[in-house]
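B., you asked whether I could sanity-check this one before it goes into the benchmark set. Here's the sequence:
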Amino acid sequence: MRSAEKLIAIALIVVSGCASSVSSEFLLPSESVNNVSCIAVLPLKNETQDPQAGDVVSDILSIELMQRGGFNVMDRMEVERALGERDIRVPHGIAPEDAAGVGIILGVQAVLTGRVTRYVYRPSALPTEGAVPAADFSLSLIDTTTGQTIWKGSGKFAPSGLLAMGTTPLTDVVQDGVERLLDSLYSGIGQRAETSGGMCWYNPNTILSGLVVASRPVYPAFRPAVAPVQQPVRQQVASVRPPEQKSQVVQATAPAKVSILNASGNPRVSALIGITLIKNKINVVNVSVEKVPVPSSVIYYTPAYHDQALAIAGMLKKAPKLVQMGTAKWNITIIVGKDYR
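And here's what the prediction gave me:
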């Protein structure tokens, strides 16, 4: 009997130890976000042993922001391209103290940055096989004009159920953590969270010549103008055109503007597809949710983007139907159906 009681006690300890915890606070009045139209998600500082941890959290954060709206978001691939164009290399992420200077270079009013301090499957305390996925990270929303932190949040995230050990992917733990932190941010900005968001692009014409990122950047007393939502300036995202693919239609040379419409009924699907596209250097311009689910997945594309639509279809785990459109708001629209499971 005592051994059974001991096992139950260990189980209770494990359950409580796996519970997530979140802290969040506004360091400036929440109205400080009123003048923020464009946010860039910067590479998070990776302080873990996993080289992918910072990118995973940054990618999920970017997609979740686009899906929620409220701000225009600079695509993660666009941030990477813009920094590379100015020979700024950040293999281990951007430290929070450098974030505002980088935001000025990108021409945005605010940046989301932070640190990932744990991203690992840790051994279970129970006398069974398996491990517990755990991710700890913090986020800060920084005003690039003043260098001040508007909001910050942090959390320790892990699944709370005994049956989740060893079966829950780390990316799901990160997704839950990002959602909880953004819930705390959006709850403090009220009606702003209800406005629709879009994309914003790097415009080198707004940058002061000679401005570089220092350990403690000096913030000029100006607010750089942000380019309106439009085709990227000198966009150099890699083409996804398959080799030797021939078509009777002249193919587009610019990367497609891709929209994801999630009509599957599964809220995680659009984030997973968005991350897949970003990892393959494809810009995601719009992410939205359809309230009425549809049975099957379809990719709609304009004629010049047949090859890119075909390549994107090959990246998805469930091959969708391809339908050509004469004209459309987006070059490629991915309708995610209930068949995408």
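One thing to flag: Residues 258-336 form a domain with the Alpha-Beta Plaits fold (CATH 3.30.70.2390). Otherwise nothing jumped out at me.
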